[in-house]
Design goal:
Layout: H1 6-13, H2 16-31, H3 38-49, E1 53-54, H4 55-62, H5 66-78, E2 82-86, E3 94-98, H6 100-120, H7 126-143
Antiparallel strand pairs: 1-3, 2-3
Helix pairs in contact: 2-6, 3-6, 4-5
């Protein structure tokens, strides 16, 4: 194992990089008139891939707990981006649907995310990205 540079490891483990990326996304969303947080965007991105899913499915896809997901969906519903609809086969289950407004947001928000991802990963080689993926997967495995 290589010598640990405590300040660099601490920065990664405390989420400094994640926080910086989240702030960048939030500023870009605000400047484009998109009233969502990065957490809400993660839910919307799942729904843009597959609409009409259960809250539990969204919890699994985003690694969020049920109370957090409930708050996120409540806020998205308040902003008229999603709606809850009872499942036809089991009325105890609500399916989360995109509204027209939520669907219309897809391309604008996705373009912003792609632009920021491109800027964030500028000048990083495929080899470096593969190394990062391997290391981060090992860290996640170690934490389980």
């Amino acid at each position: 194992m290589t010598e640990l540079h405590t300040d660099e490891v601490f920065s990664i483990l405390t989420g400094k990089i994640s926080n910086a990326i989240n702030r960048t996304f939030l500023r870009a969303f605000v400047s484009e008139g998109i009233d969502i947080t990065t957490e809400q965007w993660s839910v919307m991105a799942c729904l843009w891939q597959k609409d009409k899913v259960t809250q539990q499915t969204l919890c699994t896809l985003t690694s969020k707990d049920k109370p957090s997901m409930t708050r996120l969906i409540d806020k998205l519903e308040k902003n008229n981006l999603v709606t809850r609809v009872s499942d036809h086969f089991d009325r105890r289950i609500n399916l989360i649907h995109l509204t027209q407004e939520g669907l219309a947001l897809q391309y604008k928000a996705t373009d912003i995310v792609k632009s920021i991802a491109s800027k964030t990963l500028y000048n990083i080689t495929d080899e470096e990205m593969n190394s990062v993926r391997i290391v981060l997967k090992k860290i996640m495995t170690n934490l389980r």
